[in-house]
Structure formats: structure tokens, C-alpha cells
Amino acid sequence: MDIIESIVLGLIQGLTEFLPVSSSGHLELAKTILGDTSVPQESLTFTIVLHFATALSTLVIFRKEVLEIFKGLFQFKWNEQTQFSLKIIASMVPAVLIGLLFEEQLEAFFGGKILLVGAMLLVTAVLLLLADKAKNTAKKVSFTNAVIIGVSQAIAMLPGISRSGATISTSVLLGVDRSKAARFSFLMVVPLIIGKVAKDLMSGEVHFSNSEVAPLAAGFIAAFISGLLACTWMITLVKKSKLSYFAIYCAIVGVVAIGYSLLH
Length: 264
Hints:
- It is a single chain.
- By secondary structure, this protein is an all-alpha fold.
- It has one domain.
- 78% of the residues lie in helices and 0% in strands.
- 42% of the residues are buried.
């Protein structure tokens, strides 16, 4: 993998991790278009680097909220901070269970399954359209909401289902305030990404040579910077109910992906 390709994939990861268009689906499509021939270990290492970059960009944008979460966990008081921290933990449970129990089955959905990606992008488009038409409220995320949103996050482990799109749409359809929905969606994934990165690093399957340092660094920087921009932009767009534009985009890309898979 050369530096240009790494930057392209980094930009895609950074933008699509926060915009509701499925980062995993776009990475699968991009790798197919670019003719990515990386061996599994190299691909895994690059994926870990990109995910860590977007997790870091989330921490930078929401540094105050992240500090509040940690305060809530160690205050041992039943206040708003503690409740929010526990809601974040509750939202993680479905994805953690699915990830641990069905890791091999989930991995089987990746690796050039373009037809699946296209179909799931159409599902994402429908979710975004429904959320765009929902009424805006001032409601906060409840514990029940957190678990339901967590189930959406677990389903979004499939390539083509946007994680942010699924979780934000679910939150809005449950009546949660759009701004709070976006913030909760971005914060709830950070512990999962960091946990997954740590798990992969400890597995001993991550290896890279000196020649791969520059491409990995380029991909990391591209993902981090584009992630900062996309995260900030997405919060503004959700407030203004502009999800229908992303729904149209997902539908178009989904149809193109399905057409491509059927013709090849």
C-alpha cells in the first residue's frame, strides 16, 4: 500500500466514521476500486491505525464530555454525570456481546462483499429518511433508550450499515433531542473502538515493516484531520435536519454497488 492510497483510505475513514454513510462499507468499496491486495495482517494493522485516529479525533472534539464521563464513574454519586456514564456503558453491551460471540461470523461479511454493502446502504438510507421526518424534541437519552441505541450500534457492525446513521436515527425516532443524539452516538463508540484496538494489538497479529511506517502515518493523519472536520460538521447538520441528503447519497451508492456486484 503506497502513501497516496493510504491518504485516500484515511480520508474516507475519517469522513465516513462520523457522516452517516458507513465507514466500513466505503472502505470495502474503496479497497475494491483501488484493487487492494494487502495480506490480512497488513490490512488489519492499517484498519487499527485508522480506527485509532478517528477515536482520537472524537476525544479531541468531546474532551469536556469525556472528562465528565470519567468524573461520573468515580464520583460514586447518583447525579447526572454518573447516570450519563452508566448509559454509555449500557449502550456498549449489545455490541460487545455480538462482537465477542460472533466475531468470526462478522469477519465473514467483509472482504469484498459488495452486494451486501450495497443492500445495507439502502437500509441506511431508509433509516435516515425516517429520522429526517421525525419531530425534534428536548428529550434526553434514558437508560432504555441507551440499550435500544446500543442494539442499533451492534447491527451496524455489518458493512454498509452506518453506525452513526443507525444510532442517531434510532435516537431521533425515540424522541431524543437531535444534538444530544449526535453527541451520545459519537461518545458511545469511543470505548468500543479503543477496546477493539487494544484487543487486536494484544492478539499478536499486528505486524508492520519499516517500509510501512510512512503509509500508516499518512493514513493516520488523514483520518484524524478529516475526522475532526466531519465530527463537527455532522453535529451541525443533525441539528438542521439535513439527514435526507445523506439518505439520497446512500441510496445512490447502494444501487451502484449492487449493480457493480451483479456485473462482476
